[in-house]
Amino acid sequence: AAPMFETMWNESALNISASLRSKVQLDCKLLNSLESSIEWFDDQREVLRWRNQSQPYLGIRLGHCGEMTFSCRVKNPYGIARRTFVINVRDVTVTAIIVPGTTVATGANIRLRCIVERNGYSMRWERNQSVIGQSTTGNRNLTLTVSNATPSNEGKYECIAWRNNCTVKSSVFLNVEVPPRIEDYCPSKTVHCRYNLLELTCKASGDPSPQVTIKRKGFLSSVTGIHPGIAVYRGSVTQIGNSVFVCNAENRQGAATKACHVTTFSAPRFVNNFLAMLVRQGRQVHLRCHLFGKWLLPITNVIWYEGFIEKSEWSNKQTVSWIATLADHLKEYRCKVTNLCGSSIRRFSLYVA
Question: pLDDT-based confidence at 146, cuts 50/70/90?
Fold first, then answer.
């Protein structure tokens, strides 16, 4: 078989941190050593030494700071395997700290502290490859203050300490969390028809993304969004009148609420849908198609029928009148009243004596 490394990790590149003037041992030992040979290379891909399988290690004393790269190439008659070692050589340890922590709320005051193990180093803070603070006095720490933090302050901050040709770095990521804010809720038109489907969508922003719920005031149940930052209420409102639906958005930085006022109207309604009328011949007949109750939208159309024939001359009239004759006896009339929420029909049976 082709060469296989003995250690469980078989990554093509291994990152190692080590101190200046320390000695490291690089391991390229194989599981299958049959007829295998090893070549070692440095940063410039030059051969360092040739070893047989009995000594598959390379020992190096680190003489300068910075990043060094070494690689081994193992081959046998059946194939080749390679492994690369990237060594970050440091003279001292540098530590980057955010006080009070790496996650803060909007408006917090924070301190960026860069601490070096020994005196004698120049130091600077960088963000997005731009210097935001620097000290050349050789002190062991450099502190910057950020007042009233906003999401624009979020990101990676890097502390760099250097002396002569030796540079060491440490980075830290600042996360600025934002309280919830309801961005979109409640339609501009809050008119709703009884028994129709009502749909309300509440969207909220914040960091972390808030959990959003919609609850109808006066009711125990509520709707919680499946995904952070949004909740959708879908349901039928049968109670005529005013209802209040409250959207609530919460994350660990706070909460936000917004109320939506919905007015529910009904289709046209009559006190009774059938009326039998007895009229004396020669007297006036009054058929009234007046609606009953509150929470009714304006009438958009009124159609009258004599039997099944539409009476176009009575169109959009809620009351019609005429002088009764015997020809009107046992006739049936209907009025159909329509508004935005639906229609309703009232029937009249006329008896003329």
Answer: very high
